[in-house]
Amino acid sequence: MPSPSFVHLRVHTPYSLLEGAIRIKALPELCQRFSMPALGDPGPWSNYISFGPGTEALAGLCDITGYQGGPPLKPGNFYADQNAAFHVATAIMAAIWKRRRTGRGQHIKIVLRDTTMAVMGEYFLGYQLTGRPPHRIGNRHPNMAPHNVYRCKGEDAWVAIAVASDDEWKCFRIAIGDPPWCRDSKFASADGRKDHQEKLDSLVQSWTKGRTPYEVMHALQARGIKAGAVMRAPDILADPHYAARDFIDRTNHPDGGRYKHPGLPWKYSSAPTGMGLRAPLFAEHSNWVLQDLLDLGEEEIAALRREGTAPLEPVPR
After folding, report:
1. Are 307 and 15 in contact (CB under 8 A)?
2. Which residues fall within 8 angstroms of residue 294, CB to CB, at 6 or more apart?
3. Which residues contact 4 (CB under 8 A, 6 or more apart)?
4. What is the pLDDT of residue 128?
5. Phi then psi for 169, rounded to 5 degrees?
6. Dist. CA 179–CA 110, nearest whole Å
7. Please, where are the H alpha helices in the chain?
8. Distance of CA 160 to CAs 146, 151, 241, 311, Å?
9. pLDDT value at residue 316
10. Cβ neighbour number for residue 146 with a 10 Å cutoff
11. Per-residue exposure over 47-82, b if at least 16 CB sit within 10 Å of its own CB, e if not
12. What is the chain's percent helix, strand, coil content, to nearest 5?
């Protein structure tokens, strides 16, 4: 392995720009140069800045998100940020693997806009094959019907249902008691159900409205139909399936007290995954990062504190 090992840091703050090669004492295998711009370079927009919602719009994700006939919408969460993080982890692991083979580091660039486009390939391919740009379809699907979120009994209660084939449609009919409208010839094929999905959605909802989301989900799942209750945070924290899998973690925070939150989304066969680790306090690990990990001197750290680059208290923005 080459020595010394370096990581290149570039940190934008309201007060300063810290840029330089800083020697790392710990984790030498992870020392790679890494940058994560919004739009990337080269190009005329290289210096443009953005948060996740801006890159989602620029990547085309907002254009396909929304209801038919309605305006573009941003996804409910900051998808571009989370999606980019998965690409970051993969790229770093690949770079470490290559460094072990070649002895050379990498400059890794992960562009938020690019990673968002990378998971939407079917829309760009579809446009090139048909000449028709994609359009917003809400909770519906290009081929499946019924495929939507339906109102259920109770306040703000909903269930998601997806019927993927004619065989599943037959099972769906049995699950809901095969009412007369199910035997209408226009619903007999997938094409027919798609052509008449407005009427079909109305009829399906006439059945779901008399039942709770869980009653609908259990009845359809018993017949092999993909259905899921639309859960809110209180439902998830009290969910018996999560409890059985020991997925919900429990921590005690100095500011927040005792609370529950999602645990690690994977399970090892021979190691526990319940972390029990709370979120850090503001700047709680600042000294460890600057002194122990980055090996900065006292004067360098003091300068970063004065400039507001590494404050110990929140800085107004």
Report:
1. yes
2. 22, 23, 24
3. 23
4. 96
5. -65, -40
6. 53
7. 52-58, 79-102, 112-118, 121-130, 166-175, 190-195, 197-208, 213-221, 233-237, 240-245, 286-287, 298-307
8. 10, 9, 18, 46
9. 80
10. 22
11. eeebebbbbbbbbbbbbebbeeeeeebbbeeebbbe
12. 40, 15, 45
Residue 125 tokens read as: 């391919």
Structure tokens at 113: 């806009």
Q: State how far the alpha carbon of 28 is from the alpha carbons of 6, 18, 94, 98, in Å.
A: 8, 21, 15, 14
Domains, the chain: 6-133+283-307 (3.40.50.10540), 147-230 (3.30.1540.10)
Quick one: which of 144, 137, 155, 142 has its CA closest to 226? 144
Sequential pLDDT tens for the chain (317 residues): 333 344 444 443 333 333 443 444 444 444 667 788 899 889 999 999 888 889 999 999 999 999 999 999 998 888 888 899 899 999 988 988 888 888 888 888 899 999 999 999 999 999 999 999 999 999 999 999 999 999 999 999 999 999 999 999 999 999 999 999 999 999 999 999 999 999 999 999 999 999 999 999 999 999 999 999 999 999 999 999 998 988 888 889 998 899 888 888 888 888 877 777 888 999 999 999 999 988 899 999 999 999 888 999 988 87
Contact 204, 133 (CB under 8 A): no
Amino acid 95: pLDDT: 87
Residue 35 in tokens: 């940058």
- Cα separation values, 78 from 55, 85, 257, Å: 10, 11, 27
CA 271/CA 267 separation, integer angstroms: 8
Residue 126 tokens read as: 């579809």
Q: Give the pLDDT of residue 76.
A: 81
Structure-token pair, residue 12: 């934008």
